[in-house]
Amino acid sequence: MVSEHASPLAALGEADGGGQNVHVAALAAALGRRGIDVVVHTRREDPDVPRRVALAPGAWVDHVDAGPPRRMPKDELLPHMEEFGADLARRWDEDRPDVVHSHFWMSGLAVLEALRRAPAERPVLVHTFHALGLVKRRHQGAADPSPPGRIDLERELSAVVDRVVATCSDEVFELVRLGADRRRLTVIPCGVDLDLFGPHGPVEPRAPEQPRILALARLVERKGVGDVVAALRHVPEAELVIAGGPGAAALALDAEACRLSRLAAELGVADRVEMRGRVERPDVPALLRSADMAVCVPRYEPFGIVPLEAMACGIPVVASAVGGQIDTVVDGVTGVHVAPGCPDELGLAMRGLLDDPARRRELGAAGARRARARYGWDEIARATLDAYAAARPAEAERAQEVTA
């Protein structure tokens, strides 16, 4: 696997630490449990970390020297992908993989660079985009910080890999619009750690008389946490816990945390908003179980793992009807869909759930059943191995079509 900016060992919650890190770490571990030898190549961000670090039984993280060994925004990494690919080529000359599964578009470019330098015995190439430049540009416009040419490079990448794994049905439509061959697309969702996230277990203490609404997200504006703050006016008896971003001590220096604090003060709800900062992953389930609902309302979302984690814990979810959340959160069954960017609609949905404890319990129980039946990582690993087995080198497939 190649995951150039999203290390499976990284701390979560900050600007570039989120769902992809979780996905790569959990998928690698699940494949390792099935007897697959997995190496995850990621860019070195710390000069003192060893080159190779054990991730889980059968799975290792390989720190690639590409660019300065420090944390950098992912949108600044493109100039270092040639160096990343050169390192991969040297490694693969010594130990050729059978399958290369790249995660995010720049990882795919590094893989193609590696194969250009060491073309013999080309492995099967599988790619997961995790996010598409076409969608990001549509939502962010001129504010999109992606490197120029990203959309064209993603189009080329989708044409040369042997299989693209989309994480939701909405992404399939976007990929076909981009020009991808529908026959080489497979939908495999992200998963959830069912050993960690479940309805039974410790619950974080809270004031029993005050309902709790939880927004667990990276602190970037597109995650829609500001809409949750604005919607709080519709539920004057509730508290809002915002978890994510840097550690609590550094929140005062975080631009988005400061914006959310100002917004809460302007709207007169600051006394009911708690900015928690980053929550360590083992503590997240107890926090989720303490909430009356989890609210996940990004303006756009390639997949969205937090709704799955909340569902697995038996907590109803209010989710914007975007991206993967359309697939995972079943409106009226495991949660409630709202339009993105509509605080008033969100507030009414929150109000309706707080006024109906029986419905909250019903939605939460259905969510736990759905998460356990469909989204465990062992099931996701099985489907991914099936995709690897079904993938055929694109050149061979095209040659067969010409012969036919």
Shape type: globular
> Per CATH, what is the topology of the largest domain?
Rossmann fold
What distance separates the N and C termini?
A: 34 Å
Question: Are there runs of 5+ residues with pLDDT below 50, and where?
Answer: 398-404
Give the domain tally: 2
Briefly note the structural class of the backbone: alpha/beta
What does the main sheet amount to? 6 strands, parallel
| Rg on CA atoms, Å | 21 Å
Portion in beta strands = 15-25%
What is the arithmetic mean of pLDDT? 92
Highest CATH level, the class of the largest domain:
Alpha Beta
Strand/helix succession: HEEEHEHEHHEHEEHEHEHEHEHEHHHH
**In which range does the helix fraction lie?**
25-40%
User: How many individual β-strands?
Assistant: 13
Give the strand order, joined by hyphens, for the main sheet: 10-9-8-11-12-13
User: Under the CATH scheme, which architecture of the largest domain would be assigned?
Assistant: 3-Layer(aba) Sandwich
CATH superfamily of the largest domain: Glycogen Phosphorylase B
The number of helical elements comes to: 15
Keywords for this entry:
single chain, 404 residues, alpha/beta, Rossmann fold, 6-stranded parallel beta sheet, 4-stranded parallel beta sheet
Helix and strand arrangement:
Blueprint: H1 19-33, E1 38-43, E2 52-56, E3 59-64, H2 81-94, E4 99-103, H3 105-117, E5 124-128, H4 133-140, H5 150-160, E6 163-166, H6 169-178, E7 185-187, E8 212-216, H7 225-231, E9 239-243, H8 255-266, E10 273-277, H9 284-289, E11 293-296, H10 306-312, E12 317-320, H11 325-328, E13 335-338, H12 343-354, H13 357-374, H14 377-390, H15 394-403
Parallel strand pairs: 1-3, 4-5, 5-6, 6-7, 8-9, 8-11, 9-10, 11-12, 12-13
Antiparallel strand pairs: 2-3
